[in-house]
Amino acid sequence: MACTPPEQAEAASRQVVQPDKTALINRLRRIEGQIGGIAGMVRDDRYCVDILTQLSAVRSAIDALSIRLLENHARGCVRRAVQENGGDETLEELMGIIRKMIR
C-alpha cells in the first residue's frame, strides 16, 4: 500500500493505493444493493422488523469493510510512518479514527 504521510499532504489530497481494491469495491457494491433493497422494502410497506433486520445486516457489512480498511491502514501507512519517523502524528490520527468507529 502506497500512502502519503499526513505531514507531507493535506487531508483532502492524501491518496492510498489499496492492495485489495477490487474486493473493497465488490463489498461496497453489495452494500449498495442492500440499501436499494431496503428502499424497496420501505416503498412496499414491508414489516418494520424485516426492514430493521436488513438495516442491521448493512451495518454489519459496513463495520466489516471499515475493519478491513483499518487493517490495511495500520499495516501500510501506520507501519511505514513508525519506521520512517516514529509515527507520532500518524498514530494519533489512527487513534482518532478508532475513537470515531467505536462510538
Short description:
The protein has 103 residues and is mainly α. It has 3 helices and 2 strands. The mean pLDDT is 90.
Account of the protein in words:
- It comes from Acetobacter peroxydans.
- Belongs to the FrmR/RcnR family.
- GO terms for molecular function: DNA binding; metal ion binding.
- One of its GO terms (biological process) is negative regulation of DNA-templated transcription.
- This is Transcriptional regulator.
- The chain is mainly alpha-helical and 103 residues long.
- The chain has one domain (18-101): Methane Monooxygenase Hydroxylase, Chain G, domain 1 (Up-down Bundle), CATH 1.20.58.
- Helices cover 73% and strands 4% of the residues.
- The chain is built from 3 helices and 2 strands, in the order E-E-H-H-H.
- It has helices spanning 21-43, 48-85, 88-101, and strands at residues 2-3, 16-17.
- The chain has a two-stranded antiparallel sheet with strand order 1-2.
- Helix 1 packs antiparallel against helix 2 and helix 2 packs antiparallel against helix 3 (88-101).
- The longest helix is centred in the middle third of the chain and has 38 residues, at 48-85.
- The two termini are 27 Å apart.
- The model has no long low-confidence stretch (mean pLDDT 90).
